[in-house]
Design brief:
This protein is an all-alpha fold. It is about 90% helix and about 0% strand. Helix 1 crosses helix 10, helix 2 runs antiparallel to helix 4 and helix 9 packs antiparallel against helix 10.
Amino acid sequence: MVERFQRSIELVKASWGVLKSDRELLLFPLVSFVLTVLVTLTFALPLAATGAFQRISDSQYDPALIVVAFLFYVVTYTVIIFCNSALVAAAMIRLEGGDPTVRDGFRIAASRFPTILGYALLSATVGMILRAISERGGIVGAIAAMVVGIAWNIATFLAVPVLVVEGLGPIAAIKRSAELLRSSFGEQIVGNVGISLVFGLIGLGVGIIGALLAVLAFSISPVLGIAAVVLVVIAIAAIALVAAALTGIF
């Protein structure tokens, strides 16, 4: 256990070294976030305008809404997986001694696009099934969906790196991900929990200090207060961005 902990720390240090050498890797999670917001707005605004959200809240499901929801899942998963794949590809170039660019990452991800789309379709299908079980199965269904969802997330934890590095198909990548996770479970848990904990505490600290400064700024001037809030939001977003990039590299 001590050896796994030490290896995990070394891997986190190596990941941080990669991020410091190639700060442009931060662009991948940023692009992923922006595109995800745009996709959400593209689907949400027409649904809101046609009253679809009200029908959903009243449990008035129809085939068209189910199709739209599935398409939303597919597009969202595709965007996220594509950007994560680009990040992994760029990080691998650096770890192999190269000097990656953002274009290199997206180029390699584009070469894996059919596989990425297949994996997104599979993930969307699983997501839709789990949501249906959770919503229609009562408490038992919600618990079952949660358990299966956790198992799915664990099994697919390393699927994206496998898709990029080994070039396997969606099903084979999930199987390979499960195999790799069994052999490196300790390192993965320590590393990812450590990254989340450290950056979570940093973000919390910045949020608390920022809130106090914002209150003080508002007491002086509304404009100054708004500026303080904007700066705090930007700072927290930047912390989240670094955490996301570091986790992807790790």
